[in-house]
Amino acid sequence: MNRSQPFSITFTHDLLVILGLSLLLIVTIYFLPIPALRVVLGGPFVLFFPGYALAAALFPGRDDLEGIERLGLSLGLSIAVLPLMGLVLNYTPWGITLLSTLFSATSFMVGCTAVAYYRRGKLPVQERYALRLELDIAGWRSGGLVDRSLTVALGVSIVAAVGTFLFVLAKPEVGERFTEFYVLGPWGDARIYPQNVLVGRPITLIVGVINREHEAVEYHIVTEVGGQEVEQITGIQLTHDEKWEKTLSFALQQPGEDQRVAFLLFKKGEEEPYRSLHLWVNVRAVATLQAGETPPAPELPTLVPSPEAEPSPATGPAGTDTTPPSTTPDATPSPTATPTRTETPTAIPPAQMIHVVQPGETLSAISRQYGVSLDALIRANVLSDPDLLEVGQEILIPHSNDT
pTM for the complete prediction? Predict the structure, then answer.
């Protein structure tokens, strides 16, 4: 009885297929917003492709490894190679980023593919490894019970693994739900916030929201000063992972220390704030110093001289009167001048002012002119670059106790 021929398919360019799928993954990540396709291609790219290319370079012959051995070695090498690649990237200027990981892994596979094809080319054609898929029903039936049981177990494991993968892909686990809410300074910096401002002068801040709720959410933001609403932004509709930013500009009209500026984030339909942020700001009235004027000199308190002391006769060492005799009987002695008590004047701190920058002036010269420190001027005016001053720019001169 003739045995039927097994059904088989042979791939001689298996490594080129792997490189093509890797390039397709890169195109999908940057140009095709299809999350399912990214997962389908990304899993093998991480867990199988690098190890398979390396195994092909190390074992180019058909009889070097069995099919199951080559599969297991490919998985193990991929798990070992990628962490080492990440360790190397961590000490490079590029760091561990999506772009650097894709580029390094793809470059590694291209190098292994070149070596594998070179080594395969040195072998006879019939001895070169080629990926072969074979279905031999008759051979499987003629095998022993143990072999058939192991084959069935392997098939069930593969089907279970693929089914689990597809289930996770169809119903991904939802992570933590939250919303990022932040306030930045006028230059997008989280360190420089206005602390000392003037009445009526605009305050510029950047407010941002990032939706991490795994669903579309509508927000609105309320700005309060001292518990009173001053501005409201509505209609902020964001999908998952979507970001929103806006530059806010407002002014405080009442002077006072430690005024609380609050930013409240609300979800649609909720009365209580979902997130809240606040800043403490000192608001001060100011006198403007026009061009060409000099700062006013501090006022000094009026000194009142103490009353003159009455003269007393001088006495000698033994208590004897040593006053020389007067030639005129009714002459009175001349009073002796007693030094008056002097008081140390106390300077009244100058009022806070605005200086208008003139041509050729620097911030250092302005600080020396008013007797305040350079750091105090930078903090009071929220200057990101103190060397960049413009003619006509208004510079707040802080109180001396702010220096």
Answer: 0.43
